[in-house]
Design a protein that fits this description.
The protein has no helices and eleven strands. The protein is mainly beta.
Length: about 100
């Protein structure tokens, strides 16, 4: 298990889709902005401002990036990238634990 030390954590949760997706935002010791969260089974659409690296820590999802017709499956210990000013659809198959890193 990876441990993140010396982070600045925002206590208030980010809550989306009637509480089916939640996360906590933080800044790591090197200045990187990230969030850790949980997604309940369902289908969601997320928009991005910054480029993102989405790491699936535990669970199973299917993802379709904006401009694509292809759904790709991601499971525990896999990841995908999303471009800035874009979006993605995600089908959460099982309760999913994730980490999102915002890339400048």
């Amino acid at each position: 298990m990876e441990v993140l030390k010396n982070v600045d954590l925002v206590k208030k949760a980010n809550v989306y889709f009637d509480g089916n997706v939640t996360s906590r935002s933080f800044t790591s010791s090197d200045g990187s902005k990230m969030s850790l969260g949980i997604m309940m089974p369902g289908v969601y659409n997320f928009g991005t401002n910054e480029a993102e690296l989405m790491e699936i820590l535990e669970g199973t999802v299917e993802v379709k990036l904006a401009g694509s017709d292809t759904w790709n499956t991601y499971t525990s210990n896999t990841s995908f990238n999303v471009e800035a000013n874009s979006s993605f659809d995600i089908k959460v198959k099982t309760i999913t634990d994730y980490c999102c890193s915002y890339i400048k």
